[in-house]
Amino acid sequence: MPKQVDHEQRRREIAAALCRLASERGLEGVSLGEVAAEAGVSKGLVQHYFRNKDLMLSYATGYLRERVEQRIAARTADAPAGPRAALRAALLALLPLDPDGRTESLVANAFLFRALKDPAMAERFREGHALLRDAVAGWVEAAYPTGHANPAQEADLLLAVVSGLADAVLLGHHTSEAAVAILDRQLDRLDRAPRET
Amino acid sequence: MPKQVDHEQRRREIAAALCRLASERGLEGVSLGEVAAEAGVSKGLVQHYFRNKDLMLSYATGYLRERVEQRIAARTADAPAGPRAALRAALLALLPLDPDGRTESLVANAFLFRALKDPAMAERFREGHALLRDAVAGWVEAAYPTGHANPAQEADLLLAVVSGLADAVLLGHHTSEAAVAILDRQLDRLDRAPRET
């Protein structure tokens, strides 16, 4: 189905253009016309693929999740063997340490406001977060098998740390290196946590 | 100087109106006219106090910092005696656990995009963050005197945790209670960290 693939590629290009704009100034002021200009296509074409901005944003949340999943998969595949390295690589993939990661962190922030007014979008974010939490909990359990009664709680904590560090790096409170050092301190600490009952 | 005080009160009311609007939809789409309407004053009066939106935003960042400092001061004053309770109260004051805290967390998110384009604003945020980090480090040092070679690093980590948890609560990934439990787990853990060299 070569035509089908083409359409999907177009949708992705439009979603990528939306994400670039949103990473610069949030989502509120972004119009279909501006997205079309950024994507280098006509406004009519954007409207052909997305009848309105809500549908475009809905598609873009899926696109964003996919980008983050691909980044995690690539980083964990490149990491040294073993669950500790995989856990660390996955968490590092969530920090804005390169231009793509920076764009994704900014877009995630831009979507926050929209999600607060859009229950369906908020639900998709919750789903995405739950999947990520389960994956991180799996790595925690494999990496620190004797240390943790509740890998899910540890995953919640680690995800809060990387989320907070991501904003701190964006705002210039920490350099990338400092943020990685802070995360590494927390990972080192997992070895020392006794099993809880 | 009763007149002076009045003017300052007016500026605060306008900043509060800006913050309410920003907490609903970010900062980008907010005009001076809308802020005036939200504050229940004329656009001319807003322009009398703030010649343009940038000056209003600049004032609002100071207002926001003051609000957060007052909240921390109030929570730590109400907390049980001792530095551990003060540390916990200060960190809880940074979570969106009540309507005011929720508004402040949202406004801080809204300012993030602006700060990325406005070096002077970014610098004010960095200053505010550095003061907060020093205060938290002071409480860490007092609360866990034998556990931590580097209270500043511990403060960085705790501030990242509360920043990440704040967004998670806003997005509905965690209830307020779950977020507090996650923070408490990390605080409990500070007792177990050996002094590093």
Helix content of chain A: over 70%
Main β-sheet description of chain A: none
CATH first level of chain A: which class? Mainly Alpha
Structural class of chain A: mainly alpha
Give the overall form of chain A.
elongated
Number of strand elements of chain A: 0
The topology string of helices and strands of chain A comes to HHHHHHHHH
**Which chain pair shows the most residues in contact?**
A-B, 44 and 44 residues
Count of discrete structural domains of chain A: 1
Please identify, by name, the CATH architecture of chain A: Orthogonal Bundle
As a percent range, the share of strand residues of chain A is under 5%
Query: Count of helical segments of chain A?
Result: 9
CATH topology of chain A: Tetracycline Repressor, domain 2
List segments of chain A where confidence is low: pLDDT < 50 over at least 5 consecutive residues: none
Walk me through the structure:
- Two copies of one chain form a homodimer.
- The model of chain A has no long low-confidence stretch (mean pLDDT 89).
- Chain A has nine helices and no strands.
- Chain A is 78% helix and 0% strand.
- The first copy, chain A, has 197 residues and is mostly helical.
- In chain A, helix 1 packs across helix 2, helix 4 packs antiparallel against helix 5 (83-92) and helix 7 crosses helix 8.
- The longest helix of chain A has 26 residues, at 53-78.
- The radius of gyration of chain A is 19 Å and the shape is elongated.
- The first copy, chain A, has a single domain, classed as Orthogonal Bundle (Tetracycline Repressor, domain 2).
- The termini of chain A are far apart.
- At the A-B interface, helix 6, helix 7, helix 8 and helix 9 of A face helix 6, helix 7, helix 8 and helix 9 of B.
- Chains A, B: Residues 8-68 form the HTH tetR-type domain.
- Chains A, B: This is HTH tetR-type domain-containing protein.
- Chains A, B: It comes from Kutzneria albida DSM 43870.
- Chains A, B: Pfam families: TetR_C_6 (PF13977), TetR_N (PF00440).
- Chains A, B: Residues 31-50 bind DNA.
